[in-house]
Amino acid sequence: MSNYLLCCDWGTSFFRLRLINSSDYRLIEEVTSHQGIASIFNSWKATGERAGIAREQFFRDELTKQIAAIAHKSGSNLDQVPVAVSGMASSSIGMEEIPYASLPFAMDGSQASIRHFEARETFPHELILISGVKSQEDVMRGEETQLIGLSALLDSFGNRPKEAIFIFPGTHSKHMYVRDQILQNFETYMTGEVFNLMASASILKDSVDISAFNDFSEDNLKAFNLGLKEANDPLLNRLFTVRTNQLFGNLTKQQNAFFLSGLLIGSELKPLQEKEEWQLVLCSGTNLFPFYQQAIQDLNLSERTTVIPAELIDKAAIVGQVILFQNQNLKV
């Protein structure tokens, strides 16, 4: 078990724990749940804090349950197997708040902000808690670990770009500017969240139908492309046209959902047309990926875009955690 590592990605609303062989990044077993950081923190506030249980201990207890579950699935005794945790566990509502690392940030992980915990009798696992990265006006947690791993994988394949903007679609999309193996800057776009709010909690909710949002028919793609084109105009004005598209019978509600998506993704990606000196790396792995891939094509950005398949992005998080754990062990 000396080469085993428990890799934990603990997001705001999702938990994933993977047992891997760190020598070859092979996945042995995994467990997932919706016991994200937010729900565990709320449980601690409601019951744990009142009972005098320290927040860190409360999170360790939850982690212990998940380790027991993966041990049962794998048929192994995982005592003494170390744990690397990234994501929101290092936030103000996580296990312990760890300061962000700052830019510029090296892709070898040497500048990562990490808290190291020794194994205990009640928790027989060495543990590292990985924090995120901040700029003067932005923050991220988790994506930097993926980026470290992806950079190492691309390097091993011999196709790491010298300078590129890595695009991670999501609820809060990230554009990460990497030059000469240094993260120089990054930007967060609330594209996914704004779409969800507009489609479910605004006046526009009765003008769109997202029940068949995976239907990339010719008419739906035309509506998406129309949204991309209109992203040139002031966004707050163009958003209201989602309503008038439906009122005037210009688009069906399903087509209108694609129009709204094109409008928002276009607002995010169109500035990249002016950054001609940068290569683009589109990282798949979310249900938003097909929309971004279509936008890249429609905006004539395909020639300087490399698409990273979902399985490689999935592996990148593991590789990043292994690199950060090994770096930390060299320091302690």
CATH class of the largest domain: Alpha Beta
Number of strands: 15
Please give the largest β-sheet.
6 strands, mixed
SSE pattern, N- to C-terminal: EEEHHEEEEEEEHEEEHHHHEHEH
Helicity, in percent? 40-55%
Reading side by side through the largest sheet, how are the strands ordered? Answer: 3-2-1-4-8-7
Describe the protein:
The protein is α/β, with parallel strands linked by helices and 332 residues long. The strands form three sheets. A six-stranded mixed beta sheet has the order 3-2-1-4-8-7, sandwiched between helices. α7 (253-269) packs across α8 (289-298). It folds into two domains: 4-141, 2-keto-3-deoxy-galactonokinase, substrate binding domain (Nucleotidyltransferase, domain 5), CATH 3.30.420.300; 160-313, 2-Layer Sandwich (Nucleotidyltransferase, domain 5). It has helices at residues 37-48, 55-74, 143-157, 191-201, 218-230, 235-247, 253-269, 289-298, 310-331, and strands spanning 4-10, 15-21, 26-33, 83-87, 101-102, 105-106, 114-117, 127-130, 133-134, 139-140, 163-168, 173-179, 182-189, 279-283, 305-308. InterPro entries: DGOK (IPR007729), DGOK_C (IPR042257), DGOK_N (IPR042258). This is 2-keto-3-deoxy-galactonokinase. Keywords: Kinase, Transferase.
